[in-house]
Structure formats: C-alpha cells, structure tokens
Amino acid sequence: QVQVVESGGGSVQAGGSLRLSCAASGDAVCISAMGWYRQRPGKEWELVAVALSGGNTYYGDSVKGRFNISRDNAKKTVYLQMNDLKPEDTDVYYCNAGRITGYPGCDYWGQGTQVTVSS
Fold it and tell me: Can you tell me the distance from the alpha carbon of 1 to that of 85, in angstroms, rounded to the nearest whole number?
C-alpha cells in the first residue's frame, strides 16, 4: 500500500516563490521514484520534475532554471522549490510515486495542491 500526501500550494504574485512537499509511504520500489506533474488545459500531463532515491533529478523544459527538486530519503519526502513563478505556472500540481519506474502496478497519485500565480 502506497500513500502520497502533498502540501504547500498557495497564491503568489508573479516572480515570487513557493515550496511544495510530498511525503510518501509504502512500497519501497514504487516510492524510489517520485515527481511532480501538472495538466495543461486540453493537453496531456506535463512532467514538472522528478527525483530518484539515488540522487538523480530531471526537469521539464518549461521549468528548467526556475524550479529545484530535492529529496530526503530518511523522511521519504520530496520538495519542489518553485522560483520566479509565472502566471502560466498556475495549475493543480500532483505528486506521483512510481510512475516513471515503468511498472503498471506502481503508479500512485496524491490529491493535488493548487498553485495560483497572479500578474
């Protein structure tokens, strides 16, 4: 059983910052790969950032240079530091555990947290 819990969303002015948190528990294989996604209107899921338990990180092109993902393996928690936020970053951000492992039975989502950026 895998549980994924997100927090840290809110409202901020353009150019500001927010930090999201995602805590996971359960199957060690699934939670070895955790990341953040957002869904663009009328489009597919967009990868924002991913952190692996071994320390590797990956970023979507739209957030490179602005967002930073980090992972605390002892706490089984992933953090997403979002800087220089833009109105187009407004979305519901979802934390996922296990999706990028490629295992069909290893794909768990949190409830989502709203990020709103005003101009």
Answer: 34
The one-letter amino acid at 99: R
Residue of 91, 88, 74 lying closest to 20 (CA atoms): 91
pLDDT tens figures, 69-118: 999 999 999 999 999 999 999 999 999 999 999 888 899 999 999 999 99
Instruction: Please work out, in degrees rounded to the nearest 5, the angle formed at the alpha carbon of residue 55 by the alpha carbons of 19 and 110.
Output: 45
Phi, psi for 87 (deg, rounded to 5): -55, -35
Residue 47 and residue 96 in contact, taking contact as beta carbons nearer than 8 Å? no
Q: How far is CA 111 from its chain centroid?
A: 12
Return d(Cα 77, Cα 70) in angstroms, integer: 9
